Amino acid sequence: MYTLHEEEAENHYLGQFIPLHYHHNMLMDKNRMDNFKAAIEFTVFEGAKVLELGGGTGVLSCLAASKASKVWCVEFNPQLVAESKRLLGLNANGHKVEVIHADGFEYLPPEPVDVVICEMIHVAMLREKQIEIIEAFKARYRAKFGNKLPIFIPTAVIMAVQPLQQDYNFHGFHAPIIQFQRVFAEHPGSIELASTQTYSVMDLTQPTSREVAWQGSFKLECDGTVNALRFITKNVLAIDADKSSTIDWLIDYLALPLSEPIAARAGDELQVSFNYRTGASIQSLEKSIRATLIPASK
Prior knowledge:
The protein is of the alpha+beta class. It folds into 2 domains: 4-153, Rossmann fold; 156-294, Hnrnp arginine n-methyltransferase1 (Distorted Sandwich), CATH 2.70.160.11. It contains 7 helices and 17 strands. It has helices spanning 4-13, 20-27, 30-43, 59-64, 78-88, 130-145, 282-288; strands at 49-53, 70-75, 97-101, 115-118, 151-153, 156-166, 169-170, 173-174, 179-181, 190-192, 197-203, 211-219, 224-240, 245-250, 253-264, 269-277, 290-294. Strands 6, 9, 10, 11, 13, 14 and 15 form a 7-stranded antiparallel β-sheet that branches. It has a 5-stranded parallel β-sheet with strand order 3-2-1-4-5, sandwiched between helices.
């Protein structure tokens, strides 16, 4: 039997032991790497002290080390601790990065830092522990170093949702499954039935709740069968106040099937609600979704 203790342990470590090859693939993700590099170059100044929580391969710490005088790179997975040390040793600024095997929920640097990098991010802020890690860090940091917080990369998260008609036919096999969809790619199996709506904006510099709950409605723009919701997550990595612009990272979309497809026509209203906790499983969001159609008056 699955005990409460085991469930709590799973929830704590959910998302923290991503396989090594997945981290290697992230190095080849141009969308991710270009935007993080730009944000780090913009934010980290010469001589800065930087902390990275959840360092993975150490790549973001290494990018920060091109300007920083010192970087603490904290990683909980021992396999990644060894890999990040190996890779940092191959790079010119790697000597400025100290890799620390520790739990990001508990670690504090030995002195105040100017910038904190934390990329424990999943679409809809599920599975990985970005919000929990940052909130725990802020409390510990203030207790030790005072109320002035460092700059965070990312600094905010914007999340949106959109109804879809999704093709679930796989070579004649009908399978309504969870799908990840690449950004900036065509998705011929997806028909967008309405525009996106923002359901949450999280400012990581402010107290941020794990609880996410939304109720809203969409006016459908075309006929179709609503059988999925697409979740969209944009991370604001840095803000250039002088230019009134941001450096953003839009990550892969998440399309979740509805438990019951809904036949609809253009002009109908689709009422949607859901609730979940950041860091929880994808299934917890999927099970909470409720969708109701209100036909347009004739």
